[in-house]
Here is the input.
Amino acid sequence: MLKELLSGEVSQQEVLNYYNASIFIKNLPIEVRGYVFSYKDINCIVINKNISYYKRKKTLLHELAHIELNQLCQADSDLFEYHRQGYEDEADRYIEFLKENIKND
Here is the structure.
């Protein structure tokens, strides 16, 4: 679904509806761009209101990648913190992979 968003085939709202996700813009420490968690089957994406529009969009894509990669179910694991950086890197690599595929299509 993110590939379709990046290529302009679907809107941001369609992706949010597909993943049953809501966006919350909140005051967060400047070093935190955003995060995502699931609560009562709703994917909650929290984005720092103190970052630029561009960084908000990039953060939203990153958090949606976590959802699409099914990484939220890993949050219950005792080893989550051990693997957290790997999940962050994987989400970033996934977005770059999708962008490259769109260029090559």
Observations:
- Residues 78-82 have pLDDT under 50 and may be disordered.
- The chain is about 50% helix and 20% strand.
